[in-house]
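Late entry, pantoate complex.
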Amino acid sequence: MNTVKTVRELRAAVARARGEGKRIGFVPTMGNLHSGHVALITKATQRVDFVVASIFVNPLQFGAGEDLDKYPRTLAADQEKLLQAGCHLLFAPSVEEMYPEGTAGQTRVSVPQLSEGLCGASRPGHFEGVATVVSKLFNMVQPDLAIFGQKDFQQLAVIKSLVHDLNMPIQIIGEPTVRAADGLALSSRNGFLSEEQRAVAPIVYRTLSSIAEAIKQGDRDFPALISAQIQQLEAAGLRPDYLEIRHGQTLRPATAQDRDLVILVAAFLGTTRLIDNLHLNLDATA
Ligand code: PAF
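Prediction complete; structure with ligand written out below:
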């Protein structure tokens, strides 16, 4: 596996692979890779001939006071994992390479509506930062397909929408969340949890599962379900940012008649913000 740091080298390597008739798959990441990322690479190796990963901690998607500076940077370990997973090319640019003129005047891509609410409400500008960097990366790599984790459900919806709206010829694939044995969704931010916090953290997924179970049993009083589970999270020492039931495709607030639902949660455990979701299609599970 080759690691390149400039757009020029990236384009040259991708052009070589294209010249050999290879289909290109792309897995954008911010590094500090775990089994969830490895699953995305593995999936890509099954779908295409040439897999490109990127590692870039994108300043544009972090708000003031967020964890940009302490976000873990573990390039050597990440390279080893990518190599083992069968990745062919890693693009690991500097901030200057991605934003040579700085970020202030950078053209932005924004996806209204889908970016509002949920994580967009508590992280203003976050999805604009994601949509902008993903658009830039897509234009740099020009892959046939790109793979993202479903853990960031709203992010995946935003990316599908931008690709559709901007007519980018890229297939977007969402891969199921990889979980620890106790249900906690794997995340680079889990490393910030103390041992005690890590022991409490699985309540986040248990909360989603309890709501899903109640809905499957016919409970449609969503506000009551939510407020009971918020109390449980608070009692366990978490500070819920949101816990919501939305429509699984459009992300608009769910109605009691909806069959395609997603339950989404973000909650602080100490200073670490955990997110998770559970997609529940009542027609598929009926
Ligand atoms: O999900 C992530 O790791 C990031 O938001 C992404 C998609 C790589 C954009 O920086």
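The chain has a mean pLDDT of 97. Will revisit in the morning.
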